[in-house]
User: Fold this.
Amino acid sequence: MSARSKLRPPSSPAAPSAGELGEPLYRFPTTVAQQSFWYLDRFEPGNPCWNIAVRFRISGALHPALLERSIHEIVRRHEILRTTFALIDGVPAQIVHSDAKIPLPLDDLSQLDSAARDAEEERRSIAEAALRFDLKTGPLLRARLLKLAEREHMLLVTIHHIVSDGWSIGIFSDELGADYEALLSVRDNKPASPLSLQYADYTIWKNEQSQSPLAAQHRAYWQDKLAHLPLCEIPPDHPRPATRTHNGYILSTVLPVSLTDKLTALSQSRGCTLYTTCLAALKILIAHHTQQHDIYVGTLLAGRDRVEVEPLIGLFINTIVLRTDLSGDPTFFELLSRVQQTVEQGLEHQDLHFQQVVESLRIKRDPSRPMLYSINFIYQRDFVKPLQFAGLTLTPVPSKSPGAIYDLNFFMVERSDGWRLSCEYNYDLYEAATVNRMLGQLRHLFQEIAENPNRKISEFVIPENSDDPLPPFVPRACLAASSLDSTKTTSDGRQNSGGLIVKKILSRVYTHLGKM
Assistant:
């Protein structure tokens, strides 16, 4: 990977927010992935759909001021968290600043009764996730602390996707614990040494890689694989708006451990992963609802195939589209072989970024639909594990998030209580009951596959009704903008007043197929 190159800052960088960002130090090119988010932001400035919002429950005797300093240490260590973006000579560029101050306002909810506190925590989590970022002014990270009881807090962290991904959240939480513990024991010393490599160095290397002869081979593969794509979407309950919306919500169910154990054993017996088996089942479900055999979905890859980049916060993910022919009424095992081949080929050609694939296909953008595909599938083991440090316990909590990127985003995440099967959906298109029924159908498919995978796919029974309990749905009125007036206290005891804006919902998770 290229050695770090120090570049002179531009003569007129994007103006930093007063008191939040230090002087601009360096200018670097952006990756293709970052350029995609930059142009999306130009179309819909500040769209909170591109926020990554996470929550951490912290139990124990917490020192909020020390937690704020710990966040600052992470920002000091990772240049990408003090980076803004500017258009220079017609090209988006990264501007690295000398410092960034990330305040940690403290909202005290501990005096409320249990029901009111839980409701207020929920409202503030949704509101915080939906607040917008400005890529030009930054910072592109913010945090807020909710005091629930004397020894119970909820930390809300929101980062713009252009500087982060799911893997990065795991790095953030690990370093938060390590820095807090170090600061508590040695208050005057800095907790950790600087990184030897920064995201900007990766950017230079990645852009050089995109010009290699292999890029042409990858492009040729995707042009052939994705040629003449038919429309592949599960019929929505409501007419599709002329302009695409991002109003999203999540429904989830926990899969029995006994079921996922059976599916894992089945997968291993066929030389594949649980991911591939579940993807094949999802394709059967999509074929059932679309009544077609040419089925494709998108999936996200972690993109960290170099050990040097594993400790870096930044945007490394890439999307590939997995297209499979289900014609001929194959058995499930035969279908699994087809899907496995598709996955292996996709991984082999993953180094061409999705945006470059789209450009090579010369597909006309439809403002009413996501680009290229509308159904996504994500599989991941938790990036964030429960931590214990300095007498505290930090536990990740399912997140509230600002909107739906896809029409339907099915995802599986391994939790301490088992694999959680979820679907984030655009509720302007689909009703909660429809999505809940599809989750029940997919779980039923998993069970039938585990019992008899030798059946032809036409022989699997897909029930039209689901007995799964439906989680409470937040009405659209609650997701519209509304004020949460309150008194906030900063981590050093200062108070200020103001409101938060409530918008929409979702979580963000990413697959890393190499670590299944």
In short: Residues 1 and 327 are 44 Å apart (CA to CA).
